[in-house]
Specification:
Blueprint (H helix, E strand, L loop, with lengths): L1 E3 L3 H10 L3 H15 L3 E3 L4 H9 L2 H18 L14 H19 L6 H9 L2 E4 L3 E4 L6 E7 L5 H14 L6 E7 L5 E8 L3 E4 L2 H9 L4 E2 L8 E2 L3 E4 L6 E4 L5 E3 L3 E4 L6
Parallel strand pairs: 1-2
Antiparallel strand pairs: 3-4, 4-5, 5-7, 6-7, 8-12, 9-10, 10-11, 11-14, 12-13
């Protein structure tokens, strides 16, 4: 396997041509190289790389695209940060959102009227919270979600999907597009296997599940946060971890997952 360095040719094409047909083809080519194991992303281990690929080609493409934001901001003359030329998270996130929207529209991955499109294909909305809207049609094997970012940058939100897929492949998230809600918030549109809940998991069952994956409690045994040498898990409360009716095992539906030391592009 070839370890992929920073995709400089793609970044140069974005800078000069934007998301032209030629640039989109370059992104598609690299996406397919990553998907089929010919190239890998710097910053991901091989198991994490598998989680990236489980997220589908839109997740891979978006992860390529957001890498351009930090580079372009750092080399521009309009960066305002307390750390010299290092851009602040709000600047990075704004640029990453702009790039994702432009790329998704050029690639046919932008849902202009997502609510009606998702309801038509995946059924009515069955739940809504600060983090996601959930849609489901009885009998279907998957739910659809509009997932809002609760992370400081869009890259971290995309990485969270990759890490979730690595840690919890039984509920892997597959990205199918992007949209903005009525408040203008960028949302990632994805599908996820539907899990029939026997009951919510207990704290002890969650402790055991994450311990087997190499995590330890990160709040003196009192909270819902766990950490390993590389990854942090948060929001692992029973409402996000069910006992699967079929397997009788704890199954994580959603949580906050991030690198202990943020990945750089």
């Amino acid at each position: 396997m070839i370890v992929m360095d920073e995709p400089k040719a793609i970044y140069e094409a974005i800078a000069v041509e934007g998301f032209s047909a030629g640039t989109l083809q370059m992104i598609d080519n690299l996406t397919n190289d990553i998907r089929y194991g010919r190239k890998d992303f710097n910053g991901f281990t091989l198991p994490e790389h598998a989680g990236l690929c489980k997220g589908g080609t839109p997740l891979i493409g978006a992860t390529i695209v957001v890498g351009y934001a930090r580079r372009s901001l750092a080399t521009s003359g309009n960066v305002e940060s307390c750390e010299g030329s290092i851009p602040a998270n709000w600047q990075i996130d704004g640029e990453q959102e702009r790039l994702i929207e432009a790329w998704a529209k050029a690639s046919g991955l932008w849902f202009e009227h997502s609510d009606s499109i998702i309801q038509k294909n995946f059924g009515p909305m069955i739940a809504q919270g600060a983090e996601a809207k959930v849609y489901y049609k009885e009998g279907d094997p998957s739910v659809a979600k509009e997932r809002a970012s609760i992370y400081s940058t869009t890259q971290k939100a995309l990485d969270a999907i990759t890490l979730h897929n690595y840690l919890f492949p039984e509920t892997a998230m597959r990205v199918i597009g992007f949209t903005r809600d009525s408040d203008g918030l960028l949302r990632i549109v994805l599908t996820q296997p539907y899990i029939r809940c026997l009951r919510v998991a207990t704290k002890e069952e969650i402790d055991t599940m994450v311990s087997e994956k190499g995590f330890r409690d990160n709040w003196q045994g009192q909270g819902v946060s766990y950490i390993s040498d590389r990854i942090a898990l948060e929001d692992m409360h029973p409402a996000n971890v069910f006992i699967d009716e079929l397997t009788d095992k704890p199954t994580c539906i959603d949580c906050i997952v991030k690198f202990v030391n943020p990945r750089t592009c």
